[in-house]
Write a structure and sequence with these properties.
309 residues; alpha/beta; TIM Barrel; Bacteriocin As-48, Chain A; 2 domains; eight-stranded parallel β-sheet; globular
């Protein structure tokens, strides 16, 4: 998620931390402007407007180069560094990035060690992996290597790269990682509602969870999970609340980026929101050919969309 979406969702509540989109590290130490583009929160103490820390995520395969970029990010004030060893995109994997490194667990360990040694001890260094590249049979070797890595925490997407995003997520396999690793394990994958969190916690034993697509489908998901955890009944945001978020999302995109690029992110978000809100599907059908931000603003503000709630 970009900084605008991070700001909106953390403003609703329920989140303890965010992670940026990955910053690709391939040939050099990147200039400050690149990190500010991915994490403008660095200009505000590394926090979202509601005070939630934003870790900067790096993706690459060269330990020394990853360490040098992590050092720069730390100097820019990042609250934490996250390392991506889970991205399943073919273009990323072909250039030896993301989940491709799951085939070489020792290299993952070397990258983690180099990054940890390059930044102050006060800055957390975390990582994200999958169960393996081709097969879950690789998971044991990956855990063995990571058990020797000086990480603060590890997030595990409970599927292999080959399994992609196809259900189910194999939460029960995370119990092995939680029991064998010397640092906390965060569960990820197929977490769409508070009930999924409860089932994942039971299967994995994990006490922390990373949300991704589920948070886009239901903007109040983090707050709803926290409510359930504290014994309250989580209430789904009403469509009118979501519509106001869409209006704010469009306006912030217009201010932060070139206005002509402000419309497509709204359409993309509507595609996720329709899983919980049929009004989002109806709205998308009416604006899918809209390219002008003013026309989009008019559509979002139209009374009949609010009345559909």
């Amino acid at each position: 998620m970009d900084s605008i979406m991070r700001g909106l969702l953390t403003g609703i509540g329920g989140y303890e931390r965010c992670v940026t989109e990955f910053v690709r590290v391939s040939q050099t130490v990147l200039p400050k402007r690149v990190f500010y583009r991915y994490a403008p929160e660095l200009l505000s103490g590394g926090l979202t407007p509601s005070g939630v820390p934003v870790y900067v995520q790096l993706l690459g395969s060269d330990p020394a180069l990853m360490a040098a970029n992590a050092r720069r990010v730390a100097l820019l004030g990042a609250p934490g560094i996250d390392l991506n060893f889970g991205c399943p995109a073919k273009t990323v994997n072909r250039s030896r990035g993301g989940a491709a490194l799951l085939r070489t667990p020792d290299l993952i360990r070397s990258i983690c060690t180099a990054v940890r040694d390059s930044v102050p001890a006060s800055i957390p260094v975390t990582a994200k992996i999958r169960l393996g590249f081709d097969s879950e049979a690789e998971f044991g070797d990956i855990l063995c290597a990571l058990g020797q890595a000086p990480l603060t925490e590890l997030t595990i997407h409970a599927r292999t790269r080959r399994q992609g995003y196809r259900p189910p997520a194999h939460w029960h396999l995370l119990a092995e990682a939680r029991e064998s690793l010397p640092f906390p394990v965060i569960a990820n994958g197929e977490l769409w509602n508070p009930a999924d969190i409860m089932r994942c916690a039971s299967a994995s034993g994990c006490e922390a969870f990373m949300l991704a697509r589920g948070a886009l489908c239901r903007p109040d998901l983090g707050a709803a999970i926290q409510a359930l955890h504290h014994g309250a009944a989580p209430a789904l945001f009403k469509w009118e609340q979501v519509r106001q978020l869409l209006i704010e999302f469009l306006e912030q995109n217009r201010r932060q980026y070139n206005p002509r690029y402000a419309v497509n992110p709204v359409k993309q978000w509507l595609a996720y929101l329709k899983f919980y809100y049929p009004q989002a599907g109806a709205l998308f059908a009416g604006i899918k050919r809209v390219t002008d931000p003013d026309e989009m603003a008019t559509a979002l503000g139209a009374c009949h969309w609010a009345q559909a709630a």
